From TrEMBL:
Coiled coil listed as a keyword: no
Keywords: Carboxypeptidase, Cell shape, Cell wall biogenesis/degradation, Hydrolase, Peptidoglycan synthesis, Protease, Signal
Family recorded in the similarity comment: Belongs to the peptidase S11 family.
InterPro entries found in the cross-reference section: Beta-lactam/transpept-like (IPR012338), Peptidase_S11 (IPR018044), Peptidase_S11_N (IPR001967)
Residues making up the signal peptide according to the UniProt record: 1-25
Residue span(s) of domain Peptidase S11 D-alanyl-D-alanine carboxypeptidase A N-terminal: 32-250
Molecular function GO labels: carboxypeptidase activity
Protein name as catalogued: D-alanyl-D-alanine carboxypeptidase
Superkingdom of source: Bacteria
Organism: Bombella favorum
């Protein structure tokens, strides 16, 4: 009997360890989602929105929040030149290919994060704002998350590169997205930049909904093997602005179709008939409403009028509420 109980006890320990691991962060293949009204924060739909997940590059939304906060407080300017360390230069792709000993302007780093999701640029920002220590900056990110009410989020780096302790939830990310729009409307336009010039190249934005879903004007993609395909999107149609979060999708196509469906449902629930997807040359770029197809990077570039990365202003639909209270107005 004793060996049986020993084996049973061992099995229980293994099972509890496995359960503990999945309790900390769910893995790719199981989607968590949430759609909220950006103005009120009201939840319009949700699915496993409180499961802890790996954020991947959605982490950069907090890196950008901290950057905008430093700009607002006068501790940083867009023209500040930040040194590139060996540590930053060796970050895994996606990256700009920064060389140690060179420098990167703050605005260039912001644009690199919102378009290419460059991990080396995120690390440069993290080290600069963390007094030379990315881990210190990650601790500050986590403290800020708690102040915003993101109770189930922990950050370990500025980029979102894999760390087993770096976790979040769909609900927490909706809180962060809403805070970015509410607290820093003067910088929200960066998330809608289609491309920006860097070293004689144009760096395109990875966001698949820009130029495809009417009213979509920003936020962030993220992917790692364990996180799956993640996306946070915001769109304004009529008087309604929504924020959507999709975590853990099995592919880009599945993620994009899920987000489009969720936003459509959110607009319908808010009394706004969803507008048709944007057509170019007589065809939809996405076929999500027809039951197939996906969004591809080439679709974002072919025949699309690029938005200048120098534009300024608060997000449409927020101008008269959050922006006016903070003294920032649309140009």
């Amino acid at each position: 009997m004793r060996p049986f109980f020993s084996r049973a006890l061992f099995s229980c320990v293994v099972a509890l360890a496995a359960f503990s691991g999945t309790a900390r962060a769910q893995f790719a293949g199981h989607v968590s989602s949430l759609v909220i009204d950006a103005r009120t924060g009201a939840v319009l739909s949700e699915s496993d929105a409180d499961l802890q997940r790996y954020p991947a590059s959605l982490t950069k939304m907090m890196t950008l929040y901290m950057t905008f906060q430093a700009l607002e407080r006068g501790n940083l300017t867009l023209r500040d030149s930040m040194p590139v360390s060996i540590h930053a230069s060796t970050q895994a792709p996606s990256k700009l290919g920064l060389r140690p000993g060179t420098h990167l302007a703050v605005e260039q780093a912001i644009l690199a994060l919102v378009t290419k999701s460059a991990n080396d640029a995120a690390c440069v920002l993290g080290e600069y704002l963390g007094g030379g220590d990315e881990a210190r900056f990650a601790a500050l990110m986590t403290e800020q998350a708690r102040r915003l009410g993101m109770a189930h989020t922990t950050f370990r780096n500025a980029s979102g590169l894999p760390d087993p302790d770096q976790v979040t939830t769909a609900r927490d990310l909706s809180v962060l997205a809403r805070a970015l729009m509410r607290d820093f409307p003067q910088y929200y336009h960066y998330f809608g930049v289609r491309e920006f010039p860097f070293r004689r190249h144009m760096i395109p934005n990875h966001d698949p909904l820009l130029g495809v879903y009417q009213g979509a004007d920003g936020f962030k993609t993220g992917y790692t093997d364990l996180a799956g395909h993640n996306l946070v999107s915001s769109a304004q149609q009529g008087q309604v602005r929504l924020i959507g979060v999709v975590l853990g999708a099995s592919s880009n196509e599945s993620r994009n179709q899920t987000m489009i469906s969720l936003l459509d449902g959110g607009f319908s629930a808010s009394g706004q008939d969803p507008l048709p997807l944007i057509k170019r040359s007589g065809r939809y770029y996405a076929m999500a409403r027809r039951g197939g197809g996906g969004l591809h990077r080439s679709h974002l570039r072919r025949g699309v009028m690029l938005v200048s990365y120098r534009s300024r202003g608060a997000p449409r639909g927020l101008h008269h509420s959050w922006a006016s209270r903070r003294g920032h107005h649309r140009s």
